[in-house]
Specification:
The chain is an alpha/beta fold and 282 residues long. It has helices at 10-22, 53-58, 69-75, 117-126, 142-145, 160-164, 192-209, 222-228, 257-266, and strands at 2-7, 35-38, 43-48, 64-68, 79-84, 90-96, 111-114, 132-135, 151-156, 168-177, 179-184, 210-218, 236-239, 245-253, 270-276. Helix 4 (117-126) links the parallel strand 7 (111-114) and strand 8. Bound molecules: adenosine-5'-triphosphate (ATP), 1-O-pyrophosphono-5-O-phosphono-alpha-D-ribofuranose and magnesium ion. Adenosine-5'-triphosphate (ATP) is lined by residues 9-12, 50-51, 68, 70-71, 88, 90, 138, 155, 157, 177.
């Protein structure tokens, strides 16, 4: 039975459960459930605090986990990223009152409030900055107004929380984060059950980012058309009943679908359709 750690709360928990559900795994029905067994898929899910997941996985008691890249790095646990999942994207940044600092080099002697002490202490040390770090559990944006710190280091997605607190980012992001799958360093990821789990999640990622495109074009325009829609392996070409025409089928990135349809139309392709992909194994 594969043992998997899943976030039980916060920004990661909803999208993680949704992705696992799309990958065909049973998920808990109520938020109080701490573990469930999916016997059909031979998987057991443990619902844990996102911050604790890297620690459980590094102990070897759980085979894999879903967490945030920032949480993994902050924990310092002996675990590593094996698959990025594309949700809960954010940056991790310093911020302060406008006009106070332009970069990390201006932080000497200041107090930095954060929930991510591991990341911040290392970043300050790597940059040769002597600053003290105060740990807060959340809502760190308020620490400046209340005089606990002059600077904060926190997760920034839209920047709304910073704006609302009248703060501005300092310098470049310390790191970029998103949800990831982790395993213990040195664990056997070739194990068939682990491989099957990763293939299922990769299938969901592909289904989310690609659409299937079908169209008809004149045989003499086929090479041009295939250059526009090369597909992942190569497009499928089928004969049409109409002399001199072929049907083409290829996967294309969803974000480019409208531009690709315009380009195909411009070279004479017609009956251009896109359909959603619900699941796939590459
Ligand atoms: N607004 C956000 N947008 C995207 N990702 C976020 C956001 N806030 C937190 N995260 C990510 O969520 C993970 C932290 O999860 P955690 O549950 O500890 O905090 P949270 O999502 O802020 O929840 P809460 O503070 O309500 O408990 C990190 O990987 C972090 O990058
Ligand atoms: O840039 P934004 O889109 O505003 O998102 C970033 C905010 O979201 C998270 O806070 P959350 O609401 O989870 O509260 P917390 O500070 O208590 O963790 C994070 O800690 C930031 O405060
Ligand atoms: Mg939070």
């Amino acid at each position: 039975m594969l043992r998997i750690a899943v976030p039980n709360k916060g920004s990661l928990s909803g999208p993680a459960a949704e992705m696992l559900h799309e990958a065909g795994y049973q998920q808990r029905r109520e938020t109080k459930e701490l573990r469930i067994v999916d016997p059909e898929n031979e998987v057991e899910f443990f619902y844990l605090r996102p911050r604790d997941i890297a620690i459980y996985v590094s102990s070897g008691r759980l085979d894999i986990g879903i967490t945030g890249r920032d949480l993994l790095i902050d924990s310092g646990a002996n675990a590593e990223e094996i698959l990025p999942l594309g949700f809960a994207r954010s940056t991790f940044r310093y911020a302060t009152r406008p006009g106070t600092a332009n970069g990390v080099e201006d932080l000497n002697g200041s107090t930095v409030a954060t929930s991510y002490e591991g990341i911040v202490a290392k970043h300050l040390a790597d940059n040769g900055i002597d600053a003290s770090v105060v740990h807060l559990d959340g809502a760190v944006e308020t620490a400046i107004e209340l005089g606990v710190a002059e600077v904060i280091a926190d997760v920034v997605e839209t920047g709304t929380s910073l704006r609302n607190a009248g703060l501005e980012v300092i310098g470049e992001p310390i790191m970029k984060s998103e949800a990831i799958v982790i395993r213990r360093v040195g664990a056997d990821t070739e194990e068939p059950k682990v491989q099957q789990f990763l293939r299922r999640l990769q299938g969901v990622l592909v289904a989310r980012t690609y659409v299937m495109m079908d169209y008809d074009c004149r045989a003499e325009h086929l090479e041009q058309a295939v250059a526009i829609t090369p597909g992942l392996e190569g497009p499928t070409i089928s004969p049409l009943h109409n002399e001199g025409w072929v049907a083409v089928r290829a996967m294309v990135p969803s974000k480019d679908a409208q531009r690709i349809m315009d380009d195909l139309y411009a070279i004479g392709a017609r009956a251009i359709l896109t359909t959603a992909i619900h699941a796939c194994r590459l």
